[in-house]
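Is this the right way to post structure tokens for a design question? Let me know if I should format differently. Anyway, here goes:
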């Protein structure tokens, strides 16, 4: 774990969001720094996906503010957030199943408005990160394993050269051995200078790579701090089941 830069890449302050009249998150504050990994944990229904959707602009933040690269983007449309350097990989390995690996990657890079030939060159960077995708560049995405499809979904996002990567449950449905490999690869993306916000259910796997941790319960952040402060899983269990988190672990929310 490295020391966080002074200014966060993403600064979410006291946001509330939901679906129509249904509010799913009530008070969420968290930060992500360049080259660091923040893990957002919580039980099913705690509001993790809603939080990511609000940050990405797919759901409107009803209250609070979202700052990205030092600018308030709370009311900025989702497509403009992508152009500013934010990429969201949604849960469920969302790839174009009837397109090849390389076609999927090229589609992911269209936001950059480059020639197709230039995008093919850019795909080489993704193949270096995920070699199996290079080996299967001509394979239809739908014929690949779940782990390979998840790598492809992340690769698509990387084609846009984001500064911030939002990942929703990348380990979902994967075998335990594959989860470990996936987490290794996600953690390695920090070396590119990416800020990463990772939503995960695989708590032990995720926290082992995290720089910072936040825990949601009933739509509110109940624990937030550096990963080294919450490496005791009993602290996380207390947060998951609604017990009061230690004040020292809340300091990062301010």
């Amino acid at each position: 774990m490295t020391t966080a830069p002074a200014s966060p890449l993403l600064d979410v302050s006291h946001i509330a969001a939901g679906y129509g009249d249904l509010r799913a998150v009530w008070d969420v504050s968290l930060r992500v720094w360049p080259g660091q990994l923040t893990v957002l944990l919580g039980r099913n229904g705690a509001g993790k996906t809603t939080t990511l959707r609000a940050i990405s602009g797919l759901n409107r933040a009803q209250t609070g503010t979202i700052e990205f690269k030092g600018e308030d983007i709370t009311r900025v449309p989702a497509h403009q957030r992508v152009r500013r350097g934010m990429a969201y990989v949604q849960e469920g390995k969302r790839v174009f199943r009837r397109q090849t690996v390389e076609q999927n990657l090229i589609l992911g890079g269209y936001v950059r408005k480059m020639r197709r030939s230039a995008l093919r060159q850019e795909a080489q960077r993704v193949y270096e990160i995920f070699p199996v995708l290079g080996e299967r560049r001509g394979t239809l995405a739908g014929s690949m394993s779940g782990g390979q499809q998840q790598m492809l979904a992340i690769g698509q996002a990387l084609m846009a050269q984001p500064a911030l990567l939002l990942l929703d449950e990348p380990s979902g449905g994967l075998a335990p051995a594959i989860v470990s490999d996936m987490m290794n690869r996600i953690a390695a993306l920090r070396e590119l200078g990416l800020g990463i916000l990772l939503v995960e259910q695989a708590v032990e796997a995720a926290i082992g790579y995290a720089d910072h941790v936040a825990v949601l319960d009933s739509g509110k952040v109940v624990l937030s701090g550096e990963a080294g402060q919450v490496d005791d899983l009993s602290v996380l269990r207390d947060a998951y089941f609604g017990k009061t988190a230690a004040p020292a672990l809340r300091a990062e929310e301010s």
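Format looks fine. Someone answered above. Worth noting: The domain at 1-85+162-254 is CATH 3.40.50.300 (Rossmann fold). The two ends are 21 Å apart (CA to CA).
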